[in-house]
Design brief:
It contains 5 helices and 7 strands, in the order βαβαβαββββαα. It is of the alpha/beta class and about 200 residues long. The chain has one domain: Maf protein (Alpha-Beta Complex). Strand 6 and strand 7 form a beta hairpin. Helix 1 packs across helix 5 and helix 4 packs across helix 5. The longest helix has 16 residues. It starts with a strand and ends with a helix.
Length: about 200
Amino acid sequence: MVKKLVIASGNPGKLREIEHILAPLGIEIVAQAACGVTQAEEPHCTFVENAIAKARHASRCSGFPALADDSGICVAALGGEPGVHSARYADETADGANQDDRNNRKLLAALAGAADRRAHYYCVIVLMHHAEDPQPLIAEAEWHGEMLRAPRGSGGFGYDPLFWIPALDKTGAELTMETKNRISHRGRALTRLCEKLRTGQP
């Protein structure tokens, strides 16, 4: 079992959710910034390639096993966009506290007048035991819903205020962390990864 794991992310929301789910395993969780690891390049057109690149970079720089998440929202009416570009949809060079708001405003504008509001979040989690790990652990999951025409809720992050789950009549931003981690793309992908860690599955 892995004893210490570097999380290849600088996103506070992701870090909170990952730590919350991995805590019962007794693994020491360290954010990559605490190890002096810089953000990795994400040049690829698929989630899994970007996740592998981030995990490999964090493991190589830190010397520890590393876990990376690559995720995004895929909107049917936009042909699957923003997809891998979700984090910096509004501005590829920007970051910071207002990025989520800018992304949400751009997505609403792109969907103006669209009748088809279907969307799903997708997440792939990669755990590399070392930088040259030939068989990293990989788990994935989707979370289906619809995009609202105005944000609701103050929790979550990213596109959660616009992402509506019809069965619950709530957005991702209106869920408790416990509920979100149980049903979300990231929560279910991490749960699958934890099962692989416990059982030694590839």
